[in-house]
Design brief:
Blueprint: E1 8-11, E2 17-23, E3 29-37, E4 44-48, E5 57-62, E6 67-73, E7 79-87
Length: about 100
Amino acid sequence: AGDSQDEFFFYRSSDGVFKYYDVNSDGSLGAPIKEGVYSLGWDSITAVDLDGDSQDEFFFYRSSTGTFKYYHVTEDASLGLPVREGLYSLAWDSITAVELDPTP
């Protein structure tokens, strides 16, 4: 965290358990950084930089209802208050962030 290198985030929707791991340069998992419980039942959780500050926010999506929430994420992996929440269309299996805009 804070080193410009991504960490891996694992989440189990059945019980809300999550774990963060460092990722080694060879692609293997390093030591766990943090683990805990977020709310259960989310089908997709992905990182996206909403405000362009180079710090990712988390996007949570539940396909059965179309509910989504964006949260700020602190360096210790805690979630802040929702930045934005609402409804998207139902039944997507996965939603993920990509950077498609060309660099000037």
